[in-house]
Amino acid sequence: MARKNAFSLVAFALFVLLAANLTSVESIGVCYGMIGDNLPSPSDVVGHYQLKGIRAMRIYFPDQDTFNALKGTGIDLAMDVPNDVLPSLANDASAAANWVQNNILAHDGVSFKYIVVGNELFGDAANDILPAMSKIWDALCSAGRCNQIQVSTAVSFAVVKNSYPPSSGEFGESFMFPIVNFLKNTGNPLMVSIYPYFSYVQDQAEIPLDYALFTSTAPQFSDGPYQYQNLFDAMVDSVYSALEKAGANPALEKKAGGNLAVDYSVSLIAVESGWPGSGGNPVGASLAVGATLSNAQTYNQNLINHVRNGTPKRPGNLETYIFAMFNENKKEGDEVERHFGLFNPDLTPIYPLNFNLKHGKVLYCLIFAFAGFLNYRCSSSRTCIQLINCAYYFVMDISTINKVCLLL
Q1: Secretion signal: which residues (predicted)?
Q2: Distance between start and end Cα atoms, the chain
């Protein structure tokens, strides 16, 4: 009886410990870029997302092989409408409806979450964003899917001017204002690429490396009631300030039970963020500036750990997509653009990362532990095997498992 009671306490403790940490599942996705000639198959890539517990993916164009691999996995998909497709959709509602039919509705079992209409467009091309978004949204609503799939566009952080301090942030591009109004009226988010790396290499005299890498040990400055200890938060909050100035103001909303809560009319998604492991300075210096494997690991791990807490201005989970799954050796532009990958083509890690995300096997372990089905001696192997499987996906230290086994 004493042994069973001890096991029950341990099982309950494991249940509480693991369940309390399941909240980070929705915070992190990884961008799956395919501009390379040495990349693994989509089925292998999707399998690796599952193995690592990565629950969200962004792709930059519709891809049939990726759709087939994703079916039934439950991995949330953010899919781009490529920039060169926007003009045809912006001017033709039937073309937008056909695009939705062929690339979304025809693929049952794929968990489409976001349609990203255009990526970092500027100038005259940006004028196609809003009409294309509107027609894609109408097509989804006509199909009864606009309560399941959201529509947005991915904009560069360069659309924000006066980003320091964050409260001064405002949009410097006129095309942003009608887009924000559309997002506010339809309940859709704004997607922004947030890259402290590029800000750091372009202004090293003013931006300390530790501030860009989340390793600063003290706040660097205050902005009203908010203190900023890392550049990522300051950049994100400057976008929030720009949204508010564009009319997407937070408001108090009465919830069930009469409680007041803040309602943000336009939420924000960091649709790309990352740090290169090599490649040098994108502004042309002959020596690499900050682009090292050590810095890339530090930034991305700290990003994963941080975004569940949100920012000083808006606490809470901030959905974020790390760029990118692989180095893309055929990508155009500066050399550094080809070195943001997390994994090699053979799917081994370029550097270790703990995604701290949980999926089905954790729940499997929880159910078994809490229900008491692991009530065996440690030497029977089944107990330890189940707990170690659980620990693998939970990334628990093996010494903890050994201590638990001793109590069984």
Answers
A1: 1-27
A2: 12
Alpha carbon 387 to its chain centroid, in Å, reads 29
pLDDT, tens digit, 9 for 90 and up, residues 175-224: 999 999 999 999 999 999 999 999 999 999 999 999 999 999 999 999 99
Task: Give the span between the Cα atoms of 246 and 248, in whole angstroms.
Answer: 6
Do the beta carbons of residue 335 and residue 48 sit within 8 Å? no
User: Which whole-number Å values give the CA distances from 265 to 82, 114, 319, in the listed order?
Assistant: 27, 17, 16
Let me know: does 96 contact 60? Beta carbons within 8 Å.
Answer: no
Q: What confidence tens digit (pLDDT) does each residue in 5-31 have?
A: 544 444 444 444 444 444 434 589 999
328 is catalytic: no
User: Within 10 Å of residue 369's Cβ, how many Cβ atoms?
Assistant: 24
- Among 244, 253, 272, 328, the active-site one is 272
272 in catalytic set? yes
CB atoms near residue 267 (< 10 Å): 20
Q: 26-357, superfamily in CATH?
A: Glycosidases (3.20.20.80)
Higher per-residue pLDDT: 309 or 252:
309
Task: Give the residue extent of every domain in the chain.
Answer: 1-21+359-408, 26-357
Give residue 289's pLDDT band: very low, low, confident or very high (50, 70, 90).
confident
What does pTM read for this prediction? 0.81
Q: Using CB atoms within 10 A of its CB, is residue 286 exposed (0-12), middle (13-18) or buried (19+)?
A: exposed
Contact 155, 227 (CB under 8 A): no
Candidates 26, 120, 173, 335; catalytic one: 120
**Residue of 123, 125, 124, 133 lying closest to 80 (CA atoms):** 133
Q: Residues for the chain: how many in total?
A: 408
